[in-house]
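Whether sequence alone determines local backbone shape is best considered at the level of individual chains. When preparing material for the folding task, we compiled for one chain both its residues and its backbone structure tokens. The sequence in question and its structure tokens are set out directly beneath this paragraph.
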Amino acid sequence: MIFGSLVFLGDRMPTAVQLLLRVVQYGLLASAATAATQGVPGRAQDSGAKARSEVRWLQDMRSAAERLNYVGTIVYQQGGAVRTSRIAHFLDGGTAVERLQLLDGRPREYLRRGDEVRCLFPDSRRVLVEQRPGMEVFPALGSGGASEILERYRVRIGQLDRVAGMQCRLLQILPNDAMRFGYRVCAEEATALPLRAQTLNERGDVIEQIAFADLRLGIALDRTQLRPSWATTGWRVDRPEHRLGDLARTGWQIAVPAGFRKLKEVARRMSDDAGDTLQVVYSDGLATLSVFIADGGGKPAEADDSAHTMGVTHAYSRRIEKSLVTVIGEVPAATVRSVAQSVDVRADKSEAPSNHKATDRRVDALPSR
């Protein structure tokens, strides 16, 4: 569950922080979405909404975020940081189209059509074009189906509440272990569109939240809402290339928490002056984590591992031989540390199976430390 861009740090920062910023900024953690028909479902009676099962609520929330037409202002809050953005989302001939404007900090916009996302950076007159199977940002909650989510979480249906002047149903999505966060969602009663989502720590305290401050739902397609704020003629257009990765051939092994499945394995260039970085993306349907393995060249091994946090996104880096391994995820800090410390490389790389990609193992509990 990706809530959005958080804070901007200075130019001088550790490599792991630079990577963390790029992951949050460009949405490299993951990926998936659904497409469906246009329009708003008929207004359900209160008794019908109450009768929705846990599975039905998860299914309806996922489809509503992608197939409904809506325009609204979103407020994100974590600690003392508050960020606002403006979203316009429509279906155009069955294809999801979207414009997301960041209203605080440096001006930036994201334009999406289907799987293509164009990130506009007016300060540098630059457009970054990437292929992503759906933007996993609020009000979407994650890439997984209901059955996958219910393998590692349990859902409790609560009382009615109000968000942005609309009636919504409270749902708690609680993890079955300490490897992931819990969530509390308030979904619009008739359509199941999430109006507010809160991330909960192991004590049930809210550590991050995002919600609509105002919302127009079920409106007709308005192309003027999708026009960028700037004419981009003459801007630099970057289309980052990536290829399929194959960590197994290089001998890498990764142990991820039970319930996390591999979504993709790619090699991508994180900056113009760096070589390829291998990335493996995992998801349990709601939470996502990525393992990055970058060639450190001839740099000496660092004496200590490093950990960094941006909101609910945690990063942990360690050097293995000449490679820098960084794990980033929207999971507890102990989980990314556990995954990072599990990463290893075979001494005899030639034994790695050629018909399998990154070698995965599963862990069912955090190691005692």
The two ends are 28 Å apart (CA to CA). The chain has two domains: 31-226, 241-363. The longest strand covers residues 81-92.
